[in-house]
Write a structure and sequence with these properties.
This protein is mainly β and about 775 residues long. It folds into three domains: about 110 residues, Phage tail protein beta-alpha-beta fold (3-Layer(bab) Sandwich); about 100 residues, TonB-dependent receptor, plug domain (Ferric Hydroxamate Uptake Protein, Chain A, domain 1); about 500 residues, Beta Barrel (Maltoporin, Chain A). It has a 22-stranded antiparallel barrel. Strands 8-14-15-12-13 form a five-stranded mixed β-sheet. The protein has a three-stranded mixed β-sheet with strand order 2-5-4, covered by helices on one side. Strand 25 and strand 26 form a beta hairpin.
Length: about 775
């Protein structure tokens, strides 16, 4: 590993006058946040008399197969329900009816099954059967209260599956998507700017994954110098990743897996009917950036609403070498609105809209610091305006029967980038003109889940209508794609200690090029994965395989050429994914490992020249991950290691040829440790990312330097004021000068990559009411 030659051993604070006003405003914001949390006890007492604190809801869940009953409980309670590995085979629930707390309702539903549960932070974790002689308690209403189980190691995830829960997000306090995926060495996020960050799973860019936001498909291949999906992490409730093998119901285009982002609901923030809100404010001393979020939400007689707005403002940050990185200032505005209504019949309708806007000067090529290959008439900085919006309508039934559990979803998403274009100076040609690239998707699905004693089957149809369009003075154009798919996915426990998931989908796509020519293609996809407990409650083996047909991907907006020669047409992209793993859990200890491989065939990456509209490459990602950890109730420690090798056309990947395909990955180590002093309301934590030197590059390219980055935080929740959270954190403790491994251009001598921030102190205050 590279020595810390760029680190500094002392702290540096700037005292520039221009930052004084912003610091004063931040101090006031944090003071106001704190004062809201320290309102008179009488107000808190008044809240405690409402049904919200009583945690009571109306339940109507008939006796049925346990898996189906837990699904109904999740919808009626507003909780997320996680079913552990040794679960519900052949079991039926007890009927639950009436106005009960969520604890009482779940205890009654599980009574007689011998299955334990715990409820924490909006999640109900339903675990393995209790051993004989278990000491179940009895609630005051006569319901059986089952022994709780710990969340850590309660049941292995499917092969390649990664779930970042609401508790994980709360602990990480993410400022951007890179923070969301911290601690996962198999997932890299390139760039230090949220507007140009791209997510890579096992080195494969997210454009080769099925990416959804609240179930709505994201079609965001706009401009190779900006990010694929600009997301405010403050909106998020959970993030799920299927690395490699994805189920058929993840949606079309899951070539190398799937990423599902879910935003917060009022039900996640309230225990029952009532109203609430929160305010949060943070200050980053490195860039003098203030970020403030406000939210209000409520639930009353079947009606639910949530409103959230977040805005950030700040200056360029300073890298570990002490230099200010131009074009890294913050000017973000994001928001989320949700309305839902649930009828007495159980029919539930919900509409949500989230949006985010980044409007700040950026490096001319926003995913790199600078390049000596720039044209002399191009300025080093230009204004980018990036907007993303996502609107989703869903219908579900919160009281499903075992054979009827429908979901109807309609969604529209759009990402738009507006940026000045500087053509070569010529007579009659303007110095610059505005180019606008927009990618959108109208999509939807109707599916039904049929539950029975050994599992469930989800079957449905889905569609999308995607467009990539460039509006510019010269060479405007667009490409379009329409797709209809039919799918089914079974998730079963056919035998004791065995869990299987398998499914298939068929898709028909109509692709329209910039010339108006059309091509119709169809293909089939299939997947199978399974788990088997080699040693009950100790050792689990996992394996998975998928073959995916994804049609023809649309081109990036800013390189569309109305004169492309498509010849006989682009080829549909296909992929094959393999994964094999083991996981062991014993008395709080977890050890896991997996090997994987993803092959993309005919992955389209067009360029502007007329002859390159159907350019395509073959990509292979393969490697392994290992990890371990220990949980001791009030804390945990985890360490993970990933070794990922990525090739394009049989040669080591580079970040330029890999645009919209893949990036060099190599060896990454992550560490995480957290401990809570419960009596004091104090949580201490730290994490690290260590990237080893990467020299598996093609001839003529630079090797990528390794780096070591360490972060720490302390969080305080006053025991007498649990609605107040105060947090202080320090990122990049040793002031490392580095770029994330997935950041563009590090292997090119002419490129100065976009550095990550140097040592950064961040203060955050959050109050709920």
């Amino acid at each position: 590993m590279r020595s810390r030659k760029c680190r500094k051993g002392h702290l540096i604070f700037k005292a520039e006058r221009r930052h004084g006003g912003r610091r004063l405003l931040t101090t006031m914001a944090i003071a106001v946040t704190s004062s809201l949390a320290l309102m008179p006890v009488s107000i808190a007492s008044a809240q405690q008399s409402t049904p919200r604190v009583a945690n009571a809801r109306t339940f109507d869940i008939p006796s049925q197969p346990l898996a189906s009953a837990l699904n109904a409980f999740g919808r009626q309670s507003g909780l997320q329900v996680t079913l552990a590995a040794a679960t519900s085979q052949g079991l039926r629930s007890t009927a639950v009816s009436g106005t009960l707390t969520v604890d009482q309702a779940l205890a009654r539903l599980l009574s007689g099954t011998g299955i334990s549960y715990s409820i924490s932070a909006g999640t109900a974790l339903v675990g393995a059967p209790l051993s004989a002689g278990g000491s179940d308690a009895v609630a005051t209403d006569g319901a059986t209260v089952l022994n709780p189980i710990a969340a850590f190691g309660a049941g292995p995830l499917a092969a390649g599956e990664i779930v970042i829960s609401s508790e994980d997000l709360k602990r990480k306090n993410p400022a951007d998507i890179a923070d969301v995926f911290s601690g996962e060495p198999g997932i890299s996020v390139g760039s230090s700017l949220p507007m140009s960050q791209k997510v890579y799973v096992h080195g494969i860019e997210e454009t080769s994954l099925a990416v959804t936001m609240d179930g709505g498909r994201q079609n965001n291949k706009v401009f190779h110098h900006n990010g694929t999906n600009l997301i405010d992490p403050g909106l998020l409730k959970t993030v799920s990743v299927d690395a490699g093998v994805a189920p058929a119901d993840a949606g079309p285009g899951a070539l190398a897996g799937a990423i599902s982002y879910e935003t917060i609901d009022a039900r996640d923030l309230l225990d029952g009917e009532g109203f609430g809100g929160f305010v949060t404010s943070s200050y980053d001393f490195n860039s003098n950036t203030v970020t403030t979020g406000l939210s209000a939400y409520g639930m009353q007689e079947g009606l639910e609403f949530l409103g959230y707005v977040n805005f950030g403002k700040g200056n360029d940050f300073t890298a570990g070498n002490g230099q200010e990185v131009q074009g890294t200032s913050t000017d973000l505005l994001s928001g989320l609105g949700k309305f839902a209504y649930e009828f007495d019949s159980g029919d539930r309708f919900e509409i949500s809209h989230d949006s985010i806007r980044d409007d700040a000067p950026r490096p001319f090529r926003a995913n790199m610091g600078s390049t000596t290959g720039s044209k002399p008439w191009e300025p080093p900085i230009r204004d980018y305006t990036l907007e993303r919006g996502n609107t989703v309508f869903t219908y579900t039934d919160s009281t499903p029967e075992g054979w009827w559990d429908p979901t109807l979803l309609l969604a529209y998403s759009k990402t738009e980038v507006e940026v000045p274009v500087y053509p070569k100076p010529e007579p009659g040609v303007p110095v610059s003109y505005q180019g606008v690239g927009a990618s959108d998707s109208l999509n939807g699905k109707f599916e039904n889940k049929v539950s029975f004693d050994i599992g469930n089957v989800i079957a449905g149809v889905d569609f999308y209508k995607d467009e990539a369009k460039l509006r510019a003075l010269f060479d405007p154009g667009s490409e379009k794609a329409r797709n209809v798919g039919i799918y089914a996915q079974a998730r079963l426990e056919p035998f004791e200690r065995t869990r299987l998931s398998f499914g298939a989908r068929g898709d028909h796509q109509r692709f329209t090029g910039t010339t108006g020519q059309t091509w119709n293609n169809a293909g089939f996809s299939g997947n199978v994965s399974g788990e088997y407990d080699l040693v009950a409650d100790l050792l689990t083996a996992k394996a998975g395989y998928s073959h995916v047909w994804a049609g023809i991907p649309l081109a990036e907006n800013f390189i569309v050429n109305p004169n492309w020669d498509y010849g006989r047409g682009p080829k549909p992209v296909t992929a094959d994914n393999y994964i094999l793993g083991l996981e062991a859990n014993y008395n709080g200890f977890t050890v896991e490992g997996s090997i994987f491989q993803t092959d993309l065939d005919d992955a389209r990456t067009p360029r502007f020249p007329v002859t390159k509209g159907i350019e395509a490459h073959d990509v292979r990602s393969r490697g392994f991950e290992i990890g371990g950890g220990y949980s001791w109730g009030d804390g945990y420690f985890k360490v993970k290691y990933a070794n990922i090798d990525v090739e394009i056309d049989g040669k080591p990947a580079n970040s330029d040829l890999g645009t919209y395909l893949a990036t060099p990955a190599g060896q990454i180590i992550t560490l995480q440790a957290v401990h809570t002093l419960a009596d004091w309301g104090v949580t201490l934590g730290g994490d690290a990312e260590i990237a080893l030197d990467y020299d598996d590059v093609a001839a003529g390219y630079k090797p990528l330097d390794g780096y070591e980055v360490f972060n720490a935080f302390i969080e305080y929740v006053p025991p007498q004021r649990p609605n107040l959270t105060l947090r202080a954190e320090i990122k990049n403790i040793f002031d490392e000068t580095y770029s994330d491994r997935a950041t563009y251009g590090q292997e090119f001598a002419e490129v100065t990559p976009l550095y990550e921030p140097g040592r950064s102190f961040i203060l955050t205050a959050r109050a709920t009411f």
